[in-house]
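Sequence of peroxidase (Microthlaspi erraticum).
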Amino acid sequence: MAEVTEKKEQSVDPDPAVEHMLFEILLSLPAKDVGRFLCVSKYWATTIAGRDFVRSYSLRFSPEKQPPRLLLAFNTQVKGYQEGWYFFSTPQCLPEPDPVLRTTPRPEPRADFVSSWEFQFKKQCYKNPCYAHGLMSFLYGDEQVISNPTTGKSITLPPATVRSQEMVVRSFLGYDPIDAQYKVLCLTNVTRFCEHQVLTLGSADSSSWRVIQNCSIVPHFPGTDSVCIGGVLYYTASPSSLTMTEPFLVGFDLRSEALEVASVFPEGLASCKATNLINYHGKVALVTQTNGGHVYDLDLWVLQDAKRREWSKQGLTLRVGDTGSFHGRVEILGTCDSGEVVFAPINFRGLVVVYYLDPKTNRSIQNTTLLSSLQQICPKNGSGSGITNLDLSTPDAFDNNYFTNLQSNNGLLQSDQDLFSTTGAATIAIVASFASNQTLFFQAFDQSMINMGNISPLTGSSGEIRLDCKKVIGS
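Predicted 3D structure, token representation.
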């Protein structure tokens, strides 16, 4: 009888170049052909069934692939230690400037309400939340919360290991695109400097924190800002917790969980206070801003070469115009795919405003959305209990902003907006005069109050008292 032997497939490490070429070729094939190649070899089957290939293939051939969008998060202090968050989404694409007029048309309101939630916490939140690949991380004292704005749901992480008389100093969220894993880097103060702990979300050991051992990085205190780029989580740091001088940039590799000093700060930045970290065309960048109100002067520092620690610097100016009175101070959020730097207000006042600043031309574009904000506050078939201010820009001040709101098409009531938006209306000139001259408005208001005071009220059976303002008199 002939002896039948099974030929075992030898395990050979593929050449990285060949591996990459095979990956790209398979991505370009129809699904039917890819399925046939599962039988070629164990290596091909492992590649095709791998998480990276499945994710890349589904994104490349998805019929519902949508253009990238920006996620905007606004918070409001409800009461005490109760905080409310509103999430909106808006497209990144911007209108092209008119080649003849050399002006950019104002985009139509396109911000969509995503979700909202309120969180009752035990301590005040003194740090900005962190964002990474669709999730947000919040730190309230020692309590750490991860939120998914798309679903409006959140989870509270298990407490980090903190010794007596110590506390959680900072907590940063990062995403590893290779292993498709989220990790939370928690910094707790041990004696004088910080200790690093890591938690992997969704893993078998997601209930326990791991202390990073053999950390050779210089002892430091973390800054308040972070950014995750290409699987590396960056945050600012300093040897001094009080002055935050002699600042440097720390890089945390999410795969190897190794810490290193990515770069010292460029000359001219003596502290990491009042700095923002952003992703600028795939490179980590620092932004500092001065002034405020209607004009913001900014310096953009981009880390061009991490090995040589070379930075480039560019000055920028953002002009928010009269719309700045609607929302107060704005904050830099990052950049969109086309390279514009994105700004939005810190607090939510019912009006969603986004500013795009082109670093190449220093040209800014404004995208204002009021309708979707009001639809969230007072939804169709809602309870009717939602409230908002008649004057969204300066609700607690008596001024002429009511008329400037109308000029920006941000009148709250339709009957108010018609004073300026009705074609040929005689009231357009009145709105324009009061919007440009507050003293003139005050004088007219004084005279109106006197005129109203001179009106003789109807008494006895000469008039009718309206008990329900929604009903017509006599009905």
